[in-house]
Task: inverse folding
């Protein structure tokens, strides 16, 4: 499995002012390095610019200043080397589950037989067997996000960008999806950048948590998660988990309060 | 009756057929009851008889075939121009900015007002009939297709880009499939308008077609024939509509589930 180093250097994003007003700074100059096989969670209150940062890494948004580099090569546009799963349901409604998973493979011009073989492998790994020929609208939210994850993984990206992928799911489904993602990551050790506002989720999955400040966003704290892999749900009740959670809650509460004060 | 509560398929058909029955009954009362003089409105029976003689003695089937041919021909030409152009306009905003103002102007040009000019340019043959239909439907169609294509969900386009799709692949593999069911629905709607334009075209300078027959019947004050001709258009419209809907359901199972 391939894994590359992601380097974010001085990435800044401001949005033009509305009706001649001053431009809004969404993201202060941010530096970040993510090594091969790391699982980094970006934790922050709503509107702190964490999704903006991820979209810039994906190439879906351009930084106002700064640069994103993957193994030394600058990235400017989206590409199949950076797979992405979005918070909103973005399966192609006119393709079946299998058709969605094959989308990127077909784009790369893989022969039919090989497409089918890769798709079958990821259908099995994400627990979608028996749903291959379903249309997206026939699936629950959890099943749709499984398919979206399989679609991104089937493309064999260097780095996986996850933008609150389980944010719209109910609590129980979300926990199952976290375990599924962890299981896949523990097997493949792909580089993952995971945006979330859920503290438990960040600790449970990542080996490093970056806390972002309220808008304009910047990385205000970096918290390593020294809990061993493989992890399972029982880890969420250990004292070590509790201590990390207490620390991150302290960091986040302050930022949420600032964000609310700024909005008021 | 509860607000928004669905009706069962059987009841839907019965209710739909019911209004046809009420309509024909009211027509019967008005004519057989002597409320309207026969000179202005033929009775349902007279209309059927007139229709029978049209079909058996006056070769009305030939007129129907000619009119259908014109509608389908004009409609296909309009669609062949409008669908690709509309897709390009919807997907690429500079193309839209180039054509949109002119099309917004052109869509208000009444097709029927072009008939004298078209007769001058193209004579009274088939080219003129087809032109009326094309002018009447192509501008509307382009604007509607552009609107549908432009409404493609941006998050699906972004997902496709992260999966490795370039510009043309997004047009081919996202914009077109996403827009296809709505485009088919638009075509169904505009085909209905094409029927209006063909009859207008056939009322002037035509020697065949349903519109020409209606014009002839007016000279003979035969309201039965005129009503039969109009009803035939309605029936053909209804049948094509049902066919279109059935084909759309077949082609786009993901959109109607």
Result:
């Amino acid at each position: 499995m391939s894994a590359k180093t992601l380097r974010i250097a001085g990435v800044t994003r401001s949005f033009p002012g509305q009706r001649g007003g001053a431009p809004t700074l969404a993201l202060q100059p941010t530096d970040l390095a993510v090594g091969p096989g790391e699982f980094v969670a970006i934790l922050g209150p709503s509107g702190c610019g964490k999704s903006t940062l991820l979209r810039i890494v994906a190439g879906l948004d351009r930084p106002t200043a700064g640069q994103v580099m993957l193994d030394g090569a600058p990235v400017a546009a989206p590409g199949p080397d950076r797979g992405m799963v979005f918070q909103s349901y973005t399966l192609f409604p006119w393709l079946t589950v299998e058709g969605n998973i094959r989308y990127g493979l077909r784009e790369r011009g893989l022969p039919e037989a090989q497409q089918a073989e890769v798709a079958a492998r990821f259908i099995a790994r994400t627990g979608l067997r028996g749903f291959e020929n379903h249309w997206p609208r026939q699936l629950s939210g959890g099943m749709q996000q499984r398919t979206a994850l399989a679609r991104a993984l089937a493309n064999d990206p260097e780095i996986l960008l996850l933008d609150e992928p389980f944010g719209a799911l109910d609590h129980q489904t979300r926990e199952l999806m976290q375990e599924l993602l962890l299981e896949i990551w523990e097997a493949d050790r792909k580089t993952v950048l995971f945006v979330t506002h859920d503290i438990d989720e960040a600790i449970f999955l990542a080996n490093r948590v970056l806390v972002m400040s309220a808008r304009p966003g910047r990385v205000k704290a970096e918290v390593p998660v020294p809990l061993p892999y493989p992890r399972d749900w029982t880890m969420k009740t250990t004292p070590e988990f509790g201590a990390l959670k207490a620390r991150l809650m302290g960091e986040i509460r302050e930022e949420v309060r600032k964000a609310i004060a700024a909005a008021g | 009756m509860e607000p928004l509560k669905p009706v069962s398929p059987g009841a839907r058909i019965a209710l739909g057929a019911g209004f046809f029955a009420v309509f024909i009954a009211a027509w019967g009362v008005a004519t057989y009851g002597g409320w309207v003089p026969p000179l202005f409105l033929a009775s349902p029976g007279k209309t059927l008889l007139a229709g029978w003689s049209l079909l058996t003695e006056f070769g009305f089937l030939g007129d129907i075939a000619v009119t259908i041919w014109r509608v389908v021909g004009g409609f296909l030409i309009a669609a062949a121009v409008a669908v690709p152009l509309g897709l390009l306009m919807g997907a690429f905003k500079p193309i839209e900015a180039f054509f949109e103002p002119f099309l917004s102007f052109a869509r208000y040009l009444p097709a029927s007002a072009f008939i004298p000019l078209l007769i001058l340019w193209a004579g009274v043959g088939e080219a003129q009939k087809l032109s009326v239909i094309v002018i009447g439907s192509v501008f509307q169609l382009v604007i509607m297709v552009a609107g549908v294509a432009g409404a493609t969900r941006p998050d699906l386009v972004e997902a496709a880009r992260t999966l490795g799709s370039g510009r043309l692949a997004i047009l081919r593999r996202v914009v077109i499939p996403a827009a296809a069911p709505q485009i088919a629905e638009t075509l169904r709607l505009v085909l209905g308008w094409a029927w209006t334009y063909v009859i207008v075209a056939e009322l002037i300078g035509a020697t065949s077609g349903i519109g020409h027959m209606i014009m002839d019947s007016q000279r003979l004050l035969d309201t039965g024939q005129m009503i039969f001709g109009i009803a035939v258009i309605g029936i053909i419209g209804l049948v094509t509509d049902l066919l279109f809907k059935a084909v759309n359901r077949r082609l786009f199972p993901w959109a109607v589930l």
Q: What stands out?
A: Chain B touches chain A through 22 residues (CB under 8 Å). Residues 79 and 138 of chain B are 7 Å apart (CA to CA). The mean pLDDT of chain B is 92.
